Amino acid sequence: MSVSGILGWLNIRGGDLFLEMTDEAYAGSDALMTVRFVNRRRYLPSFLLKIRVAGGEVDFDMVDCRGEARRSLLCRFPERGEHRIARAVMSSPFPVNFFVRSRTVPVAGSFLVFPAPVRAELTGDRDQWGKEGGMTQTGKGYEGDVAKITDYSGTDPLRLVHWRLSAKHDELKVKELSSHSQTPVILDIDTLGGYSVEENLSRATYLVNTLIRSNRPVGLKLPGGEILPAVSCGHRLRLLSELALHGKH
Amino acid sequence: MVSIKSVLDLLAFATAVVGSIPLFPYLENAPRLLFTLALVTGGVADWKGIRIRGWIPTVGSLLFFIYYAGQFSRENLVLPAVSLIVVLLSARLVSEKSPRNYLQICALSLFALTSSTLFTLSPLFLVSLFMMFALITVSLVMLTYYVNATTPLITLTGLEKTLAVGLTMAVVSLPLMVFLFFLLPRTQFPLWQFLNVGGPRESGFSERVEPGSAAAVAGAKRVAFRAECCRIPVEWLYWRGIVLNSFQGIAWVRNEVPPGEEGGVVRGAVIRQVIYPEPGRSAFMPALNVPRAITGIRCSRDSDYVFRAARGVSGRVRYDAVSIVNSTIAPRKEPDRAFYLKVPQRLSSDIAGIARSSIVQGRSDEEKISLLESYFRSRKLVYATSGLPVGEQSLDDFLLGQGRGNCEFFASSAALLLRLAGVPSRLVGGYLGGEFNDLGGYYVVTEEMAHVWVEAYIAGKGWVLVDPSRWAVNFPAARGGTADSYLQRIRLALDAFGYYWNRTVINYDLERQLGVFRDANLRMKRLTPAGGFRLLLRFCGAAVLVMSLLLLKKVGRRSREERILGKFLRAVGKKYRVQLQPGMGLYDLAGTLDDPAVKRFVALYGGAIYRDRKLEPGELRELRKVISGIAASRTEVVRDPLINH
Question: Across the interface, which of A45, A59, A94 has its CB nearest the CB of B144?
Answer without folding.
Answer: A94
